[in-house]
Amino acid sequence: MSVLVLADIAATGVALATRQAVRAAQHWGLPVDLLVLGSTEAAAHAQIAGVRRVLHADAPRFAQPQAEDVARLLNSLAGDYTVILAAHGSLARNALPRVAALHDVGMISEAVALLGPNSYQRPIYAGNLLATVDNRPGLQILTVRASRFEAAAQGGQAECVAITAPAADGRSRVTGQKTAGGERPELGSARVVVSGGRSLGSAERFHACLAPLADRLGAAIGATRAAVDSGYAPNEWQVGQTGTVVAPDLYIAVGLSGALQHTAGIKDSRVIVAINQDPEAPIMQLADYSLVADLFDAVPELVRHLHTE
Ligand code: FAD
């Protein structure tokens, strides 16, 4: 028996989160296969150390995979695997529970530690508690918080095997897609994240204030839910319990209060810097470095200093 990892293929190749998921998959000491959806080129570049086989399912619909189709495919492969695992991303957290339901097994979501063959640690209550979950023995289906695992190295000699996917589900289809991040690093795996809150006041000011700082640092831009709900930033930028969980080396929180639902998504950051005019704001207690200042003075000043460094 072996472990199957569902790969996430980014524009730049295999996502860092997939290499981290492969490392997590090695926990069971079983052979690890990688399931790659989409073009042959994607499969050819999906070589990760420690992977036995790359299973490649190529069909036009996998250019923009739908959870229904991915669940069907995983379901057709499940009989050969002890564990089906993926990084906790939007596709995996939609597709894997469907497979778990079809097999009448538990779905372990966003495991942060693997304790045994069927025992896991996962955050609950917005990351304020860690639950230890013993799953029933047998097929294990789980997503992992990728940032908690070292990435397996790129490269390897895995055999690439073309597989045939079941017929398309057909109940939904993608009618369009637009990227919100542009040239910036992917939020979930960025080394530096600059996030803004409601206090930015408008979409224009959000961009005008944070983009120069993010450009200077090569950072991804994040936002609080309040900023997203106010229309200052797109949904994809939301960081937190109901957004993306980030774990950068440096997280700069600009004009955001640090509500529990937001900090649930940033706790694994190595260094947190907060800029807020209220010294009592919760983010100031969590931050490694707190600057009590008006963000509209402090951020341009910071950018100016970074330009002269
Ligand atoms: P505020 O809380 O209003 O904070 C604004 C901050 O800006 C204040 O601290 C203020 O002192 C500071 N400020 C104001 N003006 C300036 C200035 N000129 N210079 C410097 N500082 C200034 N939120 C998330 O972020 N992510 C989530 O995933 C998320 N999920 C949620 C899920 C649920 C079920 C619920 C109920 C809520 C969720 N929220 C989430 C919302 C969360 O509870 C907060 O409402 C939100 O994070 C607050 O956003 P904010 O910090 O931008 O705004």
UniProtKB/TrEMBL annotation:
<dbReference type="InterPro" id="IPR014731">
    <property type="entry name" value="ETF_asu_C"/>
</dbReference>
<keyword id="KW-0249">Electron transport</keyword>
<dbReference type="InterPro" id="IPR029035">
    <property type="entry name" value="DHS-like_NAD/FAD-binding_dom"/>
</dbReference>
<keyword id="KW-0813">Transport</keyword>
<dbReference type="InterPro" id="IPR014730">
    <property type="entry name" value="ETF_a/b_N"/>
</dbReference>
<protein>
    <submittedName>
        <fullName>FAD-binding protein</fullName>
    </submittedName>
</protein>
<feature type="domain" description="Electron transfer flavoprotein alpha/beta-subunit N-terminal">
    <location>
        <begin position="3"/>
        <end position="178"/>
    </location>
</feature>
<comment type="similarity">
    <text>Belongs to the ETF alpha-subunit/FixB family.</text>
</comment>
<dbReference type="InterPro" id="IPR001308">
    <property type="entry name" value="ETF_a/FixB"/>
</dbReference>
<dbReference type="Pfam" id="PF01012">
    <property type="entry name" value="ETF"/>
</dbReference>
<dbReference type="Pfam" id="PF00766">
    <property type="entry name" value="ETF_alpha"/>
</dbReference>
<dbReference type="InterPro" id="IPR033947">
    <property type="entry name" value="ETF_alpha_N"/>
</dbReference>
<dbReference type="InterPro" id="IPR014729">
    <property type="entry name" value="Rossmann-like_a/b/a_fold"/>
</dbReference>
